[in-house]
Hints:
Elements lengths: L2 E9 L2 E8 L5 E6 L20 E6 L18 H14 L5 E6 L1 H12 L4 E7 L5 E2 L7 H18 L8 H11 L5 H11 E4 L2 E4 L14 E2 L1 H8 L5 E7 L15 H14 L3 E6 L5 H4 L2 H12 L9
Parallel strand pairs: 3-4, 3-5, 5-6, 6-11, 7-10, 11-12
Antiparallel strand pairs: 1-2, 2-4, 8-9
Amino acid sequence: MGLISELKLAVPWGHIAAKAWGSHQAAPVLCLHGWLDNANSFDRLIPLLPKDFNYVAMDFGGHGLSSHYSPGFPYHYQNFVSEVRRVAAALKWNRFSLLGHSFGGAVGGMFSCIFPEMVDKLILLESLPFVLDTNEMDNLLTYKRRAIEHVLQVEASRKPEQVVSPGEMLQRLLKKNSHAGEECGKHLLQRGTTQVATGVWLNRDRRITWAEHCLDFVSRELFMHYIKNLQARVLLVKATEGYYALRREDDADKETVMFVVSSLKSVLKERFQYFEVPGNHYIHMNQPQQVARVISSFLQNKEGSPASL
């Protein structure tokens, strides 16, 4: 399935960039990338998925080729959720499916609870539909404070974009993101950087740093309340060597993920499916065939009964 087109969708602060595969007439699937990634995240997976869908992978605001938010306007989780609604309106989609990796899944999860009638299927790849406040209570005010201070600092510094060699940029990415791997890192940087005479610079807005600065953490009680609003069928695909928590130091604690899985199972019943596959957090880029089969059967399955693999 060849790439059909690059899209630029107008928003009040500029545009949201996206890339599309498949026919506009086909059933729509909106793909949401992870924190600090971009739409290239899905380039290896989408060609392995059923051809009779229209896949659109968007760059969140301030990421990839999308416009940065206006000066003084913060990047907040709720804004990214609202971007999904704007993209759906621009594409004239009333009902569609969502495929979210990592942070993109949390955006898709919230969207699916706020606009339940708009979402047919929700696919969570190495992701949970919400980020729970387990292990985070003592940090929440610190995150809020750092978020404000960081933005003020960036605004005050006015330093020009740092230009480095492509090799150095790749090393920086891999240092912060060991699961990505060299090939996957290069692929994300193709869309995440701009080439200039002396090297490359990052396209991403420097006001965006840590996901915890922008997230809404929810309690278990609120989580249970929210998911009762879901009308979508939900598939959660977990990589066995992937992430289990927001911060790496909490990764050994798998209880939160298990709580989310069992809660979704008890609330959604046969509308929920859970699969574990071998691989790490970037399974959909590093070994897309590992997840393509389960996602394909889920997308093509009309009844929502578990697809036989």
